[in-house]
Amino acid sequence: MSADWPRVPLGEVLTQREPDVEVAPDQQYSFAGVYCFGRGAFVGQTKVGREFAYPRLTRLRAGDFVYPKLMAWEGAYALVPRECDGLVVSTEYPVFAINTNRLIPTFLESYFKRASVWPEFGGVSTGTNVRRRRLNPVDFLSYRFPLPPLAEQGRIVARVEAVTGKITEARQLREETSPMAQVVRSSWLNQLFETARNSSWPEAALGNVADIRSGVTLGRTLLGNTISVPYLRVANVQDGRLDLATIKQVTVLPNEVEKWVLKPGDLLITEGGDWDKLGRGTVWRGEVPTCIHQNHIFRIRSSPEMFVPEFLSAIFASPYGKSYFQSASKQTTNLASINQRQLRAFRVFTPPLPEQQRIVAHLDALQAKTDVLRALQTETAAELDALLPAVLAKAFAGEL
After folding, report:
1. What domains does the chain contain, in order, with CATH numbers?
2. Percent of the chain with pLDDT over 70
């Protein structure tokens, strides 16, 4: 901290507001809250007066400073924004008016966004339960706060806001570009299979060119000797990938394993789920030995002389494939399902194997570029997250 800045008790620049709203049991009140970790205030829901455990509330004014007694040690401090003006908080949320003749409100806000400050208030919070300690207003107002001249405060605030604006802009650009690679892939597939409809590629019903089988039904009563084997649940089969973090076991008869065991090159498709994810699936590559699948997953096994499995998977993942399943499925609110008859009737394209291999190679190249982009975006996100704390640290060390 800069030695040139005097430290004054917060009580010199903040004045606690007294509760000014009498709670009426049948009156409705819109209340506000404060996020932890320096994320500011938020608009809460509406409560009826009898839902409050306090006889009096405090009405917020834009520009006030507020914190919850219980969560101060986790960085729950906020400058009241305009959208929270007029909302109420309980007496568990001390509210303070700021003396703007001595302190710029956003300077105070920036100070309390620093994670390095929060433990100082945890140290003066009281209570035997670590997670239930309260920061009393008296102790808060006694805290000695660095107070440079207003001109210096304004300069620092301007620098911090400029950096914050650039960080926000960079995050927006990152969010906008994040789905672009997937959109490019989807657009390419859509164009490919739309063209295929009018091309020389032959078509066939999936049931005529592949063996389709549902999996084991859970919870069956079995007689005789049984064995336990790993099986795939719907949660394991994602759109274009497998989530194998948790693999469960199921009990079956020994002679049933061969009927359901998965083999490398099998295509796995889910029977139902969210409407926009219907028909999601991926190629099985033997990731788990002697693994079977449950009855809400379809296993599609095609001849390697007819299909490259990844090409068949691309048809399912394309707008062409998703459009078929969404139109053919049985739908309820936000959910949909397909049956084996509908799956067997799905029309698939059967170009020569070299053509399928060329298409799969192109998709692999697109995926590789997507993976590189995502890795860069992850690195960028970490850098953006670290940038503001670094700027704030320099600001309050007098180094900006």
Report:
1. 7-148 (3.90.220.20), 150-177+352-400 (no CATH), 202-350 (3.90.220.20)
2. 84
